[in-house]
Fold:
Amino acid sequence: QVQLVESGGGLVQPGGSLRLSCVASESILSANTLGWYRQAAGKQREPVAVEIVDYSTNYADPVKGRFTISRDNAKNTVYLQMNSLKPEDTAIYYCAAKFRGSLYWGQGTQVTVSS
Structure:
C-alpha cells in the first residue's frame, strides 16, 4: 500500500501563487504515472497535470501556461506550482500515482482563490 500525503493548500487572492507538495511512501521512480487532479464543489474530479513514465506531461487546457508539475526523486515528492490563480481554480487538489498497475490517491488539500 502506497501512501500519498499532500500539503500546501490554502487561501490565496486572485493572481497569486501556491505550490502544492505530495510526498510518497516509496520511491516515485517506481511510479508509472504521477499527477494532480482537482474536484470543485458539485463537479467531478478532473485531471490537472499528469506525468507519464517517460516524463512527458499533459496539462488541462484551463491551466496551461499557469501550472507546472515537477518532481524531486530524492525526496519522493511531486510538486504542483500554480501561478496566476483564478477563482475558478478553487477546488480540492489530489495527488495520484500509479504503482505496479494500482492507482493511489492522497487525501486532498483545499485551494481557495478569493479576494
User: Anything to note?
Assistant: Residues 73 and 113 are 30 Å apart (CA to CA). The first strand starts at residue 4 and ends at 7.
